[in-house]
């Protein structure tokens, strides 16, 4: 079972261009038919392209779904400049037809009450708390069934990217707790996404330690962690693999691993 995660950078290349490269990204990410593809920073108007899609930051021009379409048209003037200003963003998971979706849930990672509690614990000032509240973050989870009877709980998250990495660690532990609480005893648990944390972070060491029991993390800040199955080492795509027509797609590289 091949699981891949990729932060799509709102469909932008690096450096950002006027046009969107979202179609090229999705074609590239699914060309080898992965079993599960977890993506982050997806424009709200594109979430319907996936098996499940959940809005994190809502479009700014009114209620969905009409605002997503308006945001798409406005963003088309210059995707690199406007990014998610009008279109909003979310997380999404593409699941291969050979797997069945048994359940789908989501959780906000940084609601007001959680920010207040953690803000006091971390000693965040007014500026830090205001920055944390600026953009909504979520974790989404799908429970999947295979024809051979195996079941998987796949959680896809995107943690806050503020310089104070303790905030991302608090969100990651909230996401991990949510994922494991939704898993049944025999489920293989997969926690994937843009954590905005390296393997050296305390939360990452906890998750990959004996108490939580997740697989080892790779380099960078994008990860696929697995509990309950043997895995290959995580692989990070080389730069040239995500270059199309001279453009480097996204400011993140896809990361993947295989479950045996």
The backbone outline, from C-alpha atoms, is: globular
Largest sheet: number of strands, sense, barrel closure: 6 strands, mixed
How big a fraction of the residues is strand? 25-35%
- Top CATH class: Alpha Beta
Q: Look at the structure and give the mean pLDDT.
A: 93
**Number of helical stretches of at least 4 residues:** 7
Give the strand tally.
Answer: 14
Distance between the termini: 7 Å
Instruction: Name the structural class.
Output: alpha+beta
CATH superfamily: Endonuclease/exonuclease/phosphatase
Can you write the helix and strand succession as a string? EEHEEHHEEHHEEHEHEEEEE
Query: Could you say how many structural domains there are in total?
Result: 1
Summarize the structure.
The protein is α+β, with helices and mostly antiparallel strands and 260 residues long. It is built from 7 helices and 14 strands.
Can you characterise this structure?
This protein has helices at 22-30, 66-75, 79-82, 112-122, 126-133, 165-182, 202-207, and strands at residues 2-7, 13-14, 36-43, 52-57, 89-95, 99-108, 138-146, 151-158, 188-194, 222-227, 235-236, 243-244, 247-249, 255-258. The protein is globular, with a radius of gyration of 18 Å. It is of the alpha+beta class. The protein contains 7 helices and 14 strands. The chain has a single domain, classed as Endonuclease/exonuclease/phosphatase (Deoxyribonuclease I, Chain A, 4-Layer Sandwich). The termini are close together. The strands form 3 sheets. A 6-stranded mixed sheet has the order 4-5-3-1-14-11, with no helix packed on it. A 5-stranded mixed sheet has the order 6-7-8-9-10, covered by helices on one side.
